[in-house]
Amino acid sequence: xxxxxxxxxxxxxxxxxxxxxxxxxxxxxxxxxxxxxxxxxxxxxxxxxxxxxxxxxxxxxxxxxxxxxxxxxxxxxxxxxxxxxxxxxxxxxxxxxxxxxxxxxxxxxxxxxxxxxxxxxxxxxxxxx
Length: 129
What we know:
By secondary structure, the chain is an alpha+beta fold. It folds into two domains: 5-70; 74-118, no CATH class. The protein contains three helices and two strands; from the N terminus they run ααββα. Helices cover 64% and strands 18% of the residues. The model has no long low-confidence stretch (mean pLDDT 81). It has a two-stranded antiparallel sheet with strand order 1-2. Strand 1 and strand 2 form a beta hairpin.
């Protein structure tokens, strides 16, 4: 049985077309991978720059805090009393899931003016007669 030369030619053309399509698809994938790599590298570089800027900001904040930290004991106590501090804590001593001892701590450290201003309502204040 003899083969038709036109069929052979058609098959060769189809193979060449398929190979060309595969080559173009491979090139597109490589270009897409390269673009993705470039975007990833740019994102990594932006992240590194942001971290470096944040680190510099933290260093400057730390230096500013260090400068401001040099306050006298009187200034520190004045700030503490002017703003007030609340200390709250609970301690439970238990053995084998049996509570043996409970200690509750609630303390307010503030000046009298701060307590009257922030904690005592207008109805709680004594009337001036």
